[in-house]
Design a protein that fits this description.
Elements (H helix, E strand, L loop, with lengths): L1 H10 L28 E6 L3 H12 L3 E7 L3 H9 L6 E3 L2 H5 L6 E4 L7 H9 L3 E4 L7 H13 L4 E3 L7 H11 L6 E9 L21 H5 L26 H17 L6 E7 L12 E8 L9 E8 L11 E7 L2 E6 L2 E6 L15 E4 L4 H14 L7 H20 L3 E2 L11 H5 L13
Parallel strand pairs: 1-2, 1-4, 2-3, 4-5, 5-6, 7-10
Antiparallel strand pairs: 7-11, 8-9, 8-15, 9-10, 11-12, 12-13, 13-14
Helix pairs in contact: 5-6, 6-11, 7-9, 9-11
Length: about 450
């Protein structure tokens, strides 16, 4: 999926784009009495592509020491270790990382099915957490993760780094200030083209000697090793992920939640299927999800959110292969990681003729590096980070609800306060999952 890999690089624009003026501020004395200039001991759990990208930016701040790294895939473990100046401890078992007293915070960048267990264990061990998105693999896990952070008074930053991008912040403010009027529809989409082979159909086999497959599966069901179920492509199998809807969808829908001041939909309907790709993935190659949201704090009106994904045609609105577009009574706002554009409704301009002077636009801004800095700042100030765990539980939940609607093939009604589908035992069963022993989330 080459286009998505390129976009992932765009996710983590280099530190050179980040404002040099961002600095860590002093905070009140907390637990290890981290001072304004004190170095932070960190551990990395999950050393794949995203874990290494996270580690790179943490190290670039010049304010952390990486003490230990854990991953059951030896090549990733070795690669990440070479990034760290001096000596670093390496393990297969993430629990050994948590044993280090000098570690103040951990980065959890594992596959989705491994997010909850190490994050909760880290909170219990007194560590703050930088948790990659999506927050959780199930709704139940997300709630337990939020509860663990609150119970143990931990700072948890989820890796929805767009919230730390200056142009995203400005675009959200445009919506919140009423610049595009009352919003009736928000579209989110992510498209690619992998036709016809997709990820292929490799046969099951023995795992390579440097990959502890049983440990990687962890709480997931026991399955024969297949290279598509492992590194990167795990996203397309229900045992480990919710597919593109929880991967990219979390980023996209989160911006809509933020701009519109909402937390959860009230109804969800999803349709699609695996229509053309000839590979062994389980997730659909074409997916459409419609969410009906309650009245927005921004307009006092209900509105609709659409999520669209296809992987056999990469053409999106106005040629954009991914993005967010909000349609208001006074204008339309498009935003992605490269910038935003607000075009007013011509009919609302009165006698003036619409021209380029009426368009408001901005180029993109750094997101990942400022997000790391925001987390480190909050370790010392003990203030809520930009992507706090409770808010991101709600944003992650939207994608997970769409997955449940798709898998059941029918419209669902959601009670956000109770976090239940009222009177729907079949749907409620999918809010959690079975864990392979000895692992559990309770």
């Amino acid at each position: 999926m080459e286009r998505l890999k390129i976009s992932r690089r765009d996710f983590n624009k280099s530190a050179a784009m980040a404002a040099a003026s961002l600095a860590l501020s002093a905070g009140p004395a907390v637990r290890n009495v981290l001072g304004a200039n004190e170095r932070v001991g960190i551990g990395l759990i999950g050393a794949g592509g995203m874990g290494q990208a996270d580690l790179r930016d943490f190290l670039h701040t010049g304010q952390v020491d990486c003490v230990a790294i854990a991953d059951p895939y030896q090549p990733h473990l070795d690669d990440a270790a070479t990034m760290v100046p001096g000596q670093v401890k390496t393990y297969k078992d993430f629990r050994r990382v948590l044993d280090h007293k000098e570690i103040d915070a951990v980065i959890v960048a594992t596959p989705d099915h491994w997010h909850a267990i190490p994050m909760i264990a880290a909170c219990e061990a007194g560590k703050d957490v930088y948790q990659e998105k999506p927050l959780s693999h199930t709704l139940f896990e997300g709630r337990k993760m939020a509860e663990a952070a609150k119970k143990h008074n931990r700072i948890v930053q989820v890796g929805t780094q767009q919230r730390s991008g200056e142009h995203f912040q400005k675009a959200v403010e445009l919506v919140r200030s009423g610049k595009i009027g009352k919003v009736t529809l928000a579209e989110t989409w992510i498209h690619g083209n992998q036709y016809p082979e997709g990820i292929g159909n490799p046969p099951d086999s023995d795992p390579p000697p440097w990959f502890d497959w049983d440990w990687w599966l962890g709480p997931a069901p026991k399955r024969p090793y297949n290279r598509n179920r492992g590194i990167y492509n795990f996203r397309w199998f229900w045992d480990y992920s919710g597919g593109i809807l929880t991967d990219w969808g979390t980023h996209l829908i989160d911006i809509v939640h933020w701009a519109m001041g909402v937390e959860a939909p009230k109804t969800i309907v999803a349709t699609g299927g695996k229509y053309v790709l000839d590979d062994n993935r389980e997730t659909p190659d074409t997916l459409e999800v419609l969410y009906q949201y309650p009245a927005s704090a921004m307009s006092g009106k209900e509105f609709v959110v659409r999520f669209s994904n296809r992987v056999a045609n990469d053409r999106g609105p106005d040629g954009h292969s991914y993005g967010i577009q909000l349609y208001g009574t006074d204008g339309t706002l498009f935003i992605d990681r490269g910038g935003y554009t607000l075009r007013p409704e011509a009919s609302r301009l009165g006698p003036e003729r619409f021209n380029s002077e009426h368009v408001i636009s901005s180029e993109g801004s750094a997101q990942h590096y400022p997000h790391v800095l925001n987390f480190l700042d909050c370790l010392k100030s003990r203030q809520k980070p930009n992507s706090d765990v409770e808010t991101m539980h709600r944003s992650t939940s939207a994608g997970l609800l769409g997955v449940i609607a798709y898998r059941l093939g029918r419209k669902l009604t959601w009670d956000a306060e109770q976090e239940q589908f009222p009177g729907d035992a079949e749907a409620n069963k999918l809010l959690t999952k079975e864990y392979r022993k000895p692992w559990a989330v309770a």
